[in-house]
Structures are given as structure tokens and as C-alpha cells.
Amino acid sequence: MIMSMPVLVLLAAGVAAAATHPGDAVAMRSLANTTGAAKTLQWGASSPDPCGGTWVGVTGNGEGRVTASPCCRSRSAASAPSTSAPTPYSKSSTYGFFAAFPALETFNLDDNEMSTMKPWIPYDVMSCPSRRSFSAMNVHFAGGFPNYFGNATLFPELESLSLARNLLWGEITPEFGKNSKIKFLDVSQQGHDEDARPDDVMRGVLSFVSGMPNLVEAHHEHNVFKGPLPEATNLTNLRVFDVSDNDLCGIAKFPAGVTVNVAGNPRVGTPCP
Ligand SMILES: *[C@@H]1O[C@H](CO)[C@@H](O)[C@H](O)[C@H]1NC(C)=O
Ligand SMILES: *[C@@H]1O[C@H](CO)[C@@H](O)[C@H](O)[C@H]1NC(C)=O
Ligand SMILES: *[C@@H]1O[C@H](CO)[C@@H](O)[C@H](O)[C@H]1NC(C)=O
User: Fold this and answer.
1) Cα–Cα distances in Å, from 142 out to 10, 197, 219, 234?
2) Cα distances (Å, whole numbers) of residue 167 to 117, 135, 202
3) Contact 247, 224 (CB under 8 A)
4) In 3-state terms, what secondary structure has residue 176?
5) Staple partner for 160: which of 107, 180, 184, 270, CB 3.0–4.6 Å?
6) CA angle, 237 as apex, 263 and 223 as ends, to 5°?
7) Which atom of ligand 3 sits closest to the CA of residue 231?
8) The pLDDT value given to residue 14
9) What is the distance between the alpha carbons of residues 76 and 66, in angstroms, rounded to a whole number?
10) Is the pLDDT of residue 108 over 70?
11) In this predicted model, which residue has the larger pLDDT, 136 or 216?
12) What's the 29 CA to ligand 1 centre distance in angstroms?
């Protein structure tokens, strides 16, 4: 027991000494300005070092790489005339944002008021292979469903994907989530963009679910998924499966103990044609 004390002290000193990686620091300072977090969250007010502990919501790892950031939850930035101040999420300036934070594990953009800009998920999101959680709910993300999040080669650590209440459309591929660690998936309530074609809705079949053994909770409610309910008898970790208000058919086959909601699917309960 006595020997453990100096070790602890050394460890603590080691962590505190890891100043933010210069590239991450530049990117975070730029983010502080463009999102308004410099004002609303006082990022940079008491220290220019994002991982130093004074930047609300920002944490770094032992090498000074930024690992978690709430990102722009700023309200003042959203109400400012946004055309003159490009944000990292605008269509014109998305590239480079995620590439600037290769160690980012969690990303949360829920209910961001900048959503009136209808941003798209920056393609360089793929430069963050250590991401465990990606959450962008109700931010008016418009576009084809980002199937790449379900590619376990690109995102081997991803456990939680929350994309509810956006304007996503298209089909989820049958390979989505195969061999992935995804436990929580929420693609519910995709709205319809007024610029979109009539069939630009969240549709297709749910067969991919059968290939996601780690799935615990899945939300697909209020979309236009068709075809049979997925074969789920092998999904032993599953606890919640909500597919209410779609256009599914067939007989529900789930392990005991799963809370299943199939309301609003008139053809569920009878065999599919
Ligand atoms: C952010 O704004 C401050 C104050 O205007 C400025 O000094 C700083 O250089 C800016 N940082 C970046 C990265 O643009
Ligand atoms: C997953 O990503 C890897 C690397 O980019 C690629 O080679 C592979 O084809 C992708 N898999 C699927 C199912 O798209
Ligand atoms: C479920 O698992 C069993 C045993 O591993 C396997 O034989 C069967 O094909 C699986 N069923 C489905 C629908 O994947």
C-alpha cells in the first residue's frame, strides 16, 4: 500500500503535463471562435490549452489528443448572422473538422440551433476510427443514410449511433453493423426535407439487424421501413426494439425479455406476402 502512493502521484503529474497536441489545440481554438463557445462556454478564457481542464466539456488523453467534445451547443453563435461566420458544420467548410481530431471518441451535436443551415455530416468523420459514440439528433441533417457508420472496419469501437429526428433518407445496407460493437442505434423519426423527392424517406428492409449481435436497444420508429420483421432470435443482448409506425409485416420473433413495439404496422401479425 505504501508503495502505491508515489506511483499515483507520478501518474497524475504525467497526465497534467500532457499539453494539448498542437494540431488539436489550433483546431479547438478555431472551433471556440467559429461556434461562439469562446463566449458561451468561456473556452480559452482562462487557459489557451483545451485539454488543460478549463475548457468545459473538453477532455484529452495522455498524449494531449482531444478525446471528447460537446462541440457547438452554442446559442449565441446560432442567432448571429451565420453566413458571415462559417461553422465547422456548414457545407462549404466541413472538410477538415474531424480530421483535426483523430482521437475523438465522442461527438455530440444534439439539438444544435445551427441546424437551420442543414449541414451534412462531414465526410472526414471517417478519420476518427476511435469514435465510440456519435450523436446528432434533431439537427436537420439531410442526405442519404450514412451507412459507413455501420462499417466495423472504419469504426471498430463505435457503440452508440444516434441520428434520430433528422432528414435522412434511403436504405440501410444489409451489411450495416456486421461484426460491429454497436449497442445503441437510433434512426427514428426522419422527417422530409421540402427540397427532397417524394421517395427520399427512410425506407428499405430491416434484415441488417440480424447481423448485429451486440445490439441492446434499437429505434426505427416513424419511418417507412417495409418487409418482414427481422429475425432476432439470436440477438441475446437485445432489450428494446421499437419499429412502431412503419410498414412492416410478418410475425415477431424475439428472445424473451425484449420490449418490442410494433404498433402502427397494420400488416404485422400476419405472414408477409
Ligand atoms: C479567436 O479569436 C481571438 C480573439 O478575436 C483571436 O485572438 C484568436 O486568434 C482566434 N483564434 C483562432 C484560431 O482563430
Ligand atoms: C468498409 O470499409 C472498408 C475500408 O474502407 C472497405 O474496404 C469495405 O469495403 C467497407 N465494407 C462495406 C461493407 O462497405
Ligand atoms: C442463430 O445461431 C445459430 C447457432 O449459432 C445458427 O445456427 C443460426 O443460423 C442462427 N440464426 C440466424 C437467423 O442467424
Assistant:
1) 48, 12, 19, 33
2) 13, 15, 9
3) yes
4) coil
5) 184
6) 30
7) 13
8) 31
9) 24
10) no
11) 216
12) 7
Determine the 3-state secondary structure of 116 from DSSP: helix
Q: What is the DSSP letter of 229?
A: P
Residue at grid coordinates 402502427: 264
Which among 29, 40, 87 is the best mutation to test ligand 1's pocket, defined by most ligand atoms within 8 Å of the CB?
29
Cβ(83) to ligand 2 under 6 A?
Answer: no
Question: Ligand 3 site: residues with CB under 6 angstroms?
Answer: 210, 231, 234
Instruction: Please tell me the residue having the least CA distance from ligand 3 atom 5.
Output: 234
Q: Which CATH superfamily is domain 96-272 in?
A: Ribonuclease Inhibitor (3.80.10.10)
- Starting from the CA of residue 156, give the closest ligand: 2
> What is the atom index within ligand 3 of the atom nearest the CA of 210?
14
Q: Which helix (H) or strand (E) covers residue 26, if one does? A: helix 22-35
33-42, 93-102, 220-229, range with the lowest pLDDT: 93-102
Candidates 144, 142, 180; CA nearest to 161 is 180
Q: What is the pLDDT of residue 34?
A: 63
**Start and end residues for every CATH 3.80.10.10 domain found in the chain:** 96-272
CA of 69 to the centre of ligand 2 (A): 27
How many other C-beta atoms can be found within 10 angstroms of the C-beta atom of residue 16?
11
Contacts with 30 (C-beta within 8 Å, 6 or more apart), sequence order:
none
- pLDDT by residue (tens digit) across 179-204? 999 999 999 999 877 777 877 889 98
Query: For residue 254, what are the contacts with CB-CB under 8 A and spacing of at least 6?
Result: 232, 233, 235, 238, 241, 260
Q: Give the strand pairing for 217-219 and 184-186.
A: parallel
Distance from C-alpha of 257 to C-alpha of 53, rounded to nearest angstrom: 43
